[in-house]
Amino acid sequence: MIDLAPAAPSPPTRGLPRRWLWPGGLSARLLLLTILFVMLAELLILAPSLAAYERGRLEERVRAAELASLAVEASPDQVVTDTLSSQLLNGAGVVSVAVQSDGIRRLLLQGPRLARAPVVVDLRTQGPLGWLFQPFRVLTGDPLQMVRIVAKPQFRDGDFVEIVAPQIRLRRELTGYLLNLLAVTAFISAVAGVLVYLSLNLFLVRPMQRITASMERFRANPDDPAARISTSHRRDEVGRAEAELDRMQADLRTALKSRARLAALGEAVAKINHDLRNMLTSAQIASERLALSGDPKVAAALPRLERALDRAAALTSDVLDYGKSEERASEPVAVALLAAVEAAAEDAGLSPKGVRLEAVVKPGDQVLADPEQLHRILVNLLRNGREAIEGAETPRLGLIQVAAKPDGEQVLLCIADNGPGVPERALARLFQPFAGSGRPGGTGLGLAISHELAQANGGALTLLRSSGEGAVFELRLPAA
């Protein structure tokens, strides 16, 4: 069955912007632009070349006519026959020859009378603009027009030599020369364009394509070993771009691995969090029963046990939150520094018989911070210092000094130990999760958590110095 329904009208295209055809690839654009620029440069020298060619042709005619005039003067009585005159004029390509000497103008060879006055070209006084535009006047003028050329004599004495020549022959010569010049220009432009294109393609386009392909492969699969760019060790901008891309890919891989480990940590903690809370609840119930025993020693140790259980329960939730890249918002209050340092030292395992604490803190010093988060920061720093001292190759009497001093609206806490210092390999990523650990078996979470908590409380945690005599950390917190 044939459908006789009228075809749907095409959408109107009136008023839509026209899209110019332009190659999308960088290689094609470079080739096209190179050819265009070379052709433009050749066209700039086209007018001088054409003008120089025309002047040379005019001077050739003048010299040929000058030689023909010498033949006239060498003849008896300086008179030649009409036949010889025609031969001389045809041989020189002119229709008349005149010479002026000592102010007297003589017409030596004369052709038929001209119907109209010729165009005058004086080669003696021709300026640069007239020299440049004269060929285009010939090419665009009347081909039947005559041209009168005046020049200085070369083969004889006199004021000037004057000839009249048909313009059509000069026009043919200029047209042929112009076509040849355009052909040579196009050939040179094509050759130069191809050479520049091949050079740029070798030194610029191909490296950029390789960099782009590496970026695309890395975006599709960062774990693919083939996605890593192989640097060419060039010392130019391309080599620097390759080196920076290689570093960026390495940093991104490290960051992605850290995030994957954090996600795995969060998933693992989420699985054990429920069971661990039940265990801690049972321990808290047991501690409450111990409180009813009436034993003075149990009553003295029970508050410490309860604090440890409460903090253990809070830590499970905090680790879970950290694995989810979240941290509980701080609730800053005025905290007594000396009591906070002593409580943290107790939980960090510092004791007079082992690694001891030296607190240079005034009893009235206070900071504005979340008590639980401050406790975690101090415990992490003190525990790291104790473990570094205990893990040193040479035994030493361990000492960790905590000194506090006011600094405007902040309080500076300097935590210094006499351990072996932070290893060189851990300095660059000291506060990055899973990357800043300086001891075997460490996770690298302690300093990362402390750094994040210090910022959450309006302060900062930095490493002041590290050497073989120990490490010094600076904790800045708002003063209460």
Helix content: 40-55%
Radius of gyration: 49 Å
Strand content: 15-25%
In what order do the strands lie side by side in the largest sheet? 2-1-5-4-3
Summarize the helix and strand pattern as letters.
HHHEEEHEEHHHEHEEHEEHHEE
Basic shape:
rod-shaped
Oligomer: single chain
Unreliable stretches: 1-21
N→C terminal distance: 92 Å
Please outline the major beta sheet: 5 strands, mixed
- Please state the structural category: alpha+beta
Please summarize what this structure is.
Among the domains are: about 25-185, no CATH class; about 330-480, 2-Layer Sandwich (Heat Shock Protein 90).
Description:
This protein has helices at residues 26-44, 46-74, 82-92, 128-140, 167-220, 237-291, 296-323, 337-347, 371-390, 424-427, 445-456, and strands at 96-101, 104-110, 119-122, 146-151, 160-166, 333-336, 356-360, 366-369, 399-407, 410-417, 460-467, 470-478. With 480 residues, it is an alpha+beta fold. Among the domains are: 26-186, no CATH class; 330-478, Heat Shock Protein 90, CATH 3.30.565. Strands 2-1-5-4-3 form a five-stranded mixed β-sheet. Strands 7-9-10-12-11 form a five-stranded mixed β-sheet. The chain has a two-stranded antiparallel ribbon with strand order 6-8. Strand 1 (96-101) and strand 2 (104-110) form a beta hairpin. Helix 1 runs antiparallel to helix 5 and helix 5 (167-220) runs parallel beside helix 6. The radius of gyration is 49 Å and the shape is rod-shaped. Mean pLDDT is 78; it is low at 1-21.
